[in-house]
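Quick note —
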Amino acid sequence: MEATFNLNSFWNSFSNRLEKPVREHLQNVYSCLAISTLAAAAGGYVHLFTDFLQGNFLTTLLSLGLLVALFTVQDNGKNQHVRLSILVGFAFTTGLGLGPLLDVVVSVDPSIVATAFVATCAVFACFSLSALYSDHCRWIYIGGTLMSILSMMLVLSLANLFFGSYLLFQMHLYLGLILFCFFVLYDTQLIIEKRKRGERDYIR
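Predicted structure written out below.
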């Protein structure tokens, strides 16, 4: 009974903080995310357990082509199915392209895949809820800082190709984890703010 009451209180609080159009937009965004995740998982499964398709350089090029198509085909209110198909195709080929990496991971310890999936879902859910219940636009202003750190990490990763430093590798690993947690906060509030300003595209 108490759990039901807490759940109702949580939902009422969520409904009061966000207008109905924003809630519907978030539902569409997270639905697309769930569909994309399933498509990527299907791509990885096809590589690991079938001989039908295998991840290689061509599938990587195909995924890049679909990504370009997704940004090229603009939303006109009538082509959601076409754009959603492109998104699913991109997610599937991306999962397929990750197949060789999954081969290595599974050879080390198959449980790593499930652990990574559960941990990623938990982190995403926690930081998304934090962004939804934070003050209005609190995290939007860190976008410039996040992009600067991301650029610095890219430079360091390229430099580490020549230095081969274990310290730089570890720093890149954990700094990247922290950075993308903050990106969840930033992107969630950015999606909300864009919808409030009239943006209706929930696919891109």
